Amino acid sequence: MGYVFTCGYRRKDVIEQVTRPWTDEHGVLHRPLKHCTRSNTLWMVYQVGDEEPFIVCTLLRPGRGGTRGSEWGYKHMTESMGPNYYSCPVGYLDLAPEPEHEETFGSSDNWRAKVRRAYALSLTRGRANKAIRAYNRGTGTKEKYLAALAEYQEKVNEYYGHAVQITVKER
After folding, report:
1. Among 16, 171, 5, 154, CA closest to 73
2. Distances (CA, A) of 48 to 52, 103, 108
3. Residue of 12, 102, 111, 125 with fewest CB within 10 Å of its CB?
4. Reported pTM
């Protein structure tokens, strides 16, 4: 499926449109329980009527006018479609049960595991960057720097499923 573009809609207009609750022709309420953006990815925990909530990944994209133009579009993907995006807030995984559909394209538990690994990797990367900055400023020890780097290396290898070489220039 492609993107839906609306002439004159800026990025914030698209976000407002897709996060606004609405009622369909049968009187069923469609509403996001929570939403946030990570770059040009809008994450929502969405609920239709009294059904179980589910996770929606909405990709946002500028049209012909580029990011300064007045034409932005969006494309929805549910968790059951196996999106290749892993910046979903980890807390959203607890708000929506795993889909039980047989027609799930990607393994939902595999996707959720990748989201959790990406989150762990980002936390470890933050600690490693902090230790590297402190060491480079002369306020941190080489032991803390090397320990943080080793922890990050371990998480990177776990995330990618094989050994990845990280090279850091020392001062």
Report:
1. 5
2. 8, 19, 20
3. 102
4. 0.75
